[in-house]
Amino acid sequence: MLAATVARFSPDSPLDGLEVGQRPEPEEREHWSTVDVQAATLNHHDLWSLRGVGLRAEQLPMVLGTDAAGVAPDGSRVLVHGVIGADGHGVGPRERRTLLSEKYPGTLAERVAVPTANLVPLPDELSFAEAACLPTAWLTAYRMLFGAGGLTPGDRVLVQGAGGGVATAAIALGAAAGLEVVATSRSAAKRARALELGAAHAVEPGERLPARVDAVVESVGQATWAHSVRSVRPGGTIVVCGATSGDAPPAELTRVFFNEIRVQGVTMGSRDDLAALVRFCARTGLRPVIDSEVPLARVADGLARLEAGEQTGKIVVLP
Ligand SMILES: NC(=O)c1ccc[n+]([C@@H]2O[C@H](COP(=O)([O-])OP(=O)(O)OC[C@H]3O[C@@H](n4cnc5c(N)ncnc54)[C@H](OP(=O)(O)O)[C@@H]3O)[C@@H](O)[C@H]2O)c1
């Protein structure tokens, strides 16, 4: 089958380590199912993998990709929950939590094998491409807002780096749930897009906000951390899921302790969170923001766009 793999690590120029070519079919395992992938999406995680973060050389070549929607062996439409081992699904109680493409081959392929319990039924309202946006970026944003962030309708939230996959998801989900969303972006075009997605305000990174927020959705890291600490209200929460621009910002400890700010990490979400997110989208009519679609054979173009930070929303890959 055709698949996109990390062939070698390339820390400075991730695309140099990418290979798209023929790979063996997924291994059959008890309590696992092989899904015919109809759509996958790209995440920053794929670039980290190509740089060598989270993988060992002896695991190469590793099929990339954490998100997919497709057809299960029984012919039903399904969404793949990409977290393996969190609940012991099909892999035994001692399985360490990993994401697809970290230990087991990922979704940038014609077929992917996952524990059968990781399959979430896909309602007809959502297309395969829309659904494939949900399992990583949208699931993480969902948990950041409504789980770790503890936000309820009417609350204020700051979303840093408005163009990102997690960020666009947080803006759209937050607005649909009645939050007052403030977004930052380096790009005027992306700020305009954030307003179209439902943000109440869109400002440049570092700009003073109209009012302090109850929580911050932080996925940019070093470049925006100080602004996040300054923008959250006393007793508020900064929810962090990533550090695209680096993870060594000044900690701003004085503000953290003086204002009794909570810093809460999030990694993905549970299968139940994903099923709830699918229901949220199906019932409200909210749909993931799709930046562009590329065929699997040209996945390098999509990864280059992601690396350059040119996208608004998710880049869909069609096998
Ligand atoms: N913990 C988890 O489960 C989890 C899940 C998903 C993602 N993540 C992590 O979260 C991060 C974002 O993921 P993603 O897939 O949403 O990535 P993405 O689509 O590549 O978005 C990154 C965004 O960060 C902003 N940005 C990048 N460099 C910046 C800089 N130097 N200064 C200011 N802003 C900058 C950009 O926004 P603007 O261009 O609009 O400024 C960019 O669109 C990644 O590090 C990823 O690994 C973690």
Automatic annotation (TrEMBL):
Domain of life: Bacteria
InterPro entries: ADH-like_C, ADH-like_N, ER, GroES-like_sf, NAD(P)-bd_dom_sf, Zinc_ADH-like
Any single Pfam family the record assigns to this protein: ADH_N
Domain Enoyl reductase (ER): from-to ranges: 13-317
Coiled coil stretches, renumbered: none
Region (Disordered) residue spans: 1-30
Protein name from the UniProt record: Zn-dependent oxidoreductase
Organism for this UniProt entry: Isoptericola cucumis
Species classification: Bacteria, Bacillati, Actinomycetota, Actinomycetes, Micrococcales
